[in-house]
Design goal:
The structure is a homodimer of 349-residue chains.
Chain A: H1 6-21, H2 27-33, H3 40-52, E1 56-57, E2 66-67, H4 69-79, H5 87-98, H6 104-119, E3 122-126, E4 135-144, E5 147-154, E6 159-165, H7 172-186, H8 196-202, H9 210-227, E7 232-235, H10 239-242, H11 249-259, H12 262-275, E8 284-287, E9 299-308, E10 312-321, H13 326-347
Helix pairs in contact in A: 1-3, 1-4, 2-3, 5-13, 6-13
Chain A binds a DNA duplex (30 and 30 nucleotides) through helix 2 and helix 3.
Chain lengths: 349, 349
DNA sequence: TTTGGCACTCAAGAACCAAGAGTGCTAATT
DNA sequence: AATTAGCACTCTTGGTTCTTGAGTGCCAAA
């Protein structure tokens, strides 16, 4: 059945209207708002057919129809047309993102705020998964006796560090010796291939006692492992309370309850990211029941990736009610993503 | 009027009952639940008097009484008795805090989660204000041509850093020269006394061209200024939706709307912290209208401080409905605060 | 100062009703 | 075979009315 099939036009009209008005749409309203060259009775027949196909449903007997999950799915897959943001919308977003400080952490958090504000829904930005990025530099820096700073430079210019404890009597020179030999042997290795054993073998030929060495290596190891920790910026939860879709307290409770576990959401994103088939700038769209997270049954979840350098990427997306303006939201995400990419590129030269 | 005044006992009973039941309490209920040796008519007279004093009020003519803001105030100031947490409650909190990683940022975030979970309300933990702490060490570390890491060690063992841009052709040796002379002259200075001018004068006698020097100094300066940035961990917003006090959507919206601006909340805490009269481990309690933040009119706000070293302190507290178990909440904050203090001490040796 | 008694108030819930939007189905029309 | 007009039927929504009961304030007596 083609796009020109009237039934599909009806579905599109129903989705559009329902997104706008948040009211089940009936045959009369459909005729009025869209210029279908047929009578309401005909549309009623079409709607009955669409219902039989599982694309729309009615909340109760004497109400209009609303799209089902599968209806939305059909809509985003075949019917929706994505158009550019208006100049003023782009301007607005640009301004807000540009006025933030030039640091990675801040940039992402700020971008998340901007996105949630622009969409009026919940935004999600995750720092890149660094497990596959490689270690370019590693330095151990004495801060005071017993305390050192591990500084790691990863591919794509990301810098991470952590304060660690070391034996009190270790001298800066000894520390430098360890640091240098570790760096030499780990140079270029992906983070997730570094193990405690890799580390141990890297410092074979020093004359520092094993027991001391081991403590330092262990601390270094934890620092490395911690470097690929994911940060999650989930912003705008309160926006959901303003939407009529969550005016029932129970729904709002469930939703915010799950969103408060940002680790859970991040884990879910990583999972669906693995199943992804398309390229990097395609969009993952999950609708209603398709989302395997309790409490998000009435939501849709749209994510995509932004790039840090050529190989590393993080995620950005939006969580909102199923009844959202998919096309608009996607172009908003897209523009914010574009701004992030641009800014990151500038930071890394 | 003393504590033994029956009217005060009545007030206490009303607060206790209202906190428990969330229902306006009437004279009959009062007689039943507390063994007042008088009749309900007498209590009615007392209650009328308490109302005239502005300590309680009725939602409408034919309902029982609820405490007014001033009533709660009287309660926390003179009537409330704080008792220890039970062993199992302490155990629970201890366990959850102990199982988190030993790093400052994580510790505080985790503590905030624990506190919000324990109280079932919103918890607030702020990183220490570092403006008054002093700079013990400052190092500029070459990462790659054009990029350096500024590492700062502050009093109380806090380490902060930031990646900055530097001129491409600057050599590690030149960088070290700048770094050393800056460190020498800033050593021991409180962060908030460091200005761009202080920095400029500190490197008078180098032979590096001024224009280059200025860029590096400026970047260093921004790094220093950014070091005293405040992080705010506001957790458990979703808990508020479960409380009957915020079952009206409007209230919940207002509340979460304001809480989403964590900067605003943090700013407010800093403000009231300045007005504080008592010692460090006293509690600031703000009730209802006393809180100068839109949307928190139905809340109470309890904060206190935790210590990092001898001079630096951060804030920890709870935001919940006015109708909260003040005594319990205070002991919960107190215990979490104690655990934080302890852990921080251990991290710093 | 305390108490019993009583009239009064008011929110909350139940029951009922009317209006209106929307449907499905049938029979006629193109 | 597709479309349409017409109509009976369903069900939500909102308004009105009534009842119930908890709670008060106040008066007069102890």
């Amino acid at each position: 059945m083609g796009l020109n099939d009237r039934k599909m036009q009806v579905l599109q009209a129903i989705v559009d209207d329902y997104v706008n008005t948040n009211e089940p749409v009936g045959s009369k309203a459909l005729i009025e708002r869209h210029k279908f060259p047929v009578s309401s009775a005909t549309l009623r027949n079409d709607m009955a057919e669409l219902e039989r196909m599982g694309l729309i449903e009615k909340p109760h007997t004497s109400a209009g129809r609303i799209p089902s999950d599968r209806g939305y799915r059909e809509y985003v897959d075949s019917l929706m047309r994505i158009d550019q943001l208006s100049a003023s919308e782009r301007e607005e977003i640009s301004r807000k993102i540009d006025e933030c400080l030039d640091e990675a952490g801040d940039l992402l958090k700020n971008a998340s705020s901007v996105l949630s504000e622009a969409t009026g829904m919940v935004s999600l930005v995750m720092t890149p998964r660094l497990a596959e990025s490689s270690l370019l530099q590693l330095k151990l820096l004495m801060i005071e006796p017993g305390k050192a700073l591990v500084v790691m430079v990863l591919s794509a210019g990301v810098v991470k560090d952590k304060v660690v404890r070391i034996p009190n009597f270790l001298t800066p020179d000894q520390l430098k010796e360890i640091s240098d030999s570790v760096e030499r042997s780990l140079n270029g290795k992906p983070l997730d291939e570094i193990t405690l054993i890799t580390l141990a073998t890297s410092v074979k030929e020093t004359q520092i006692p094993d027991s001391i060495l081991n403590q330092v290596l262990y601390e270094t190891y934890t620092a490395i492992k911690q470097a690929d920790r994911l940060d999650v910026f989930l912003e705008g939860e309160h926006n959901m309370l303003k939407l009529p879709d969550f005016s029932e307290l129970r729904r709002a409770q469930n939703l915010l309850g799950t969103l408060s576990h940002d680790g859970m959401v991040a884990g879910y994103v990583n999972e669906i990211e693995k199943e992804k088939t398309g390229g990097d700038d395609t969009y993952m769209i999950r609708i209603g029941q398709e989302i395997a997270l309790e409490g998000l049954e009435d939501c849709s979840f749209i994510t995509t990736t932004y790039k840090v350098g050529d190989t590393i990427s993080g995620n950005i997306g939006v969580i909102g009610p199923k009844r959202m303006d998919y096309s608009k939201v996607i172009s908003q995400i897209d523009f914010v993503r574009y701004k992030i990419n641009e800014k990151i590129k500038k930071i890394n030269e």
